[in-house]
Amino acid sequence: MAQRFGNFKVYFPNIVFKIIPDARLAKNQAAFRVPLNINKLDIKDYLTHIYNVTVTDVRTTVFPGKLSTNRYTGQKERSSRIKKAIVTMKEEFEYPKEADTDKDFGGLELKYESLRRANKLKGWRIRPSVEMMALRSKVMESRKAAEEANNKA
User: One Pfam family name from the record (predicted)?
Assistant: First the structure.
């Protein structure tokens, strides 16, 4: 009998926790920006079950929105409120490294395409700049490397 797939239901959370780097916190603490409707128990539950982290303490603060003036109407407006959670864990917390957008998310290709479109708007007789040609060669090299990696696998 063939193996059946799709019997086990997997639930993905629709909650976004944004890590806020803060040098003032202890090594076993981390700060997150969380949705306003999430409470301390939900934060602890989320981190324990999704990331297998032993949470010892959760402290939350709700910051009021910033007051600004609408430049069209002159009325005072307040931006949305922000909830910050400081989580204390049993283990030391290490912030993840920042992703290289050029390498991991196709940032070079996006830059090249935006330059190409900007050049196209100037007219069809405009020659590509040195910067654009250098960017194009980097994009082509990264495409070749990706193809070779796919062919080896």
Answer: Ribosomal_L23
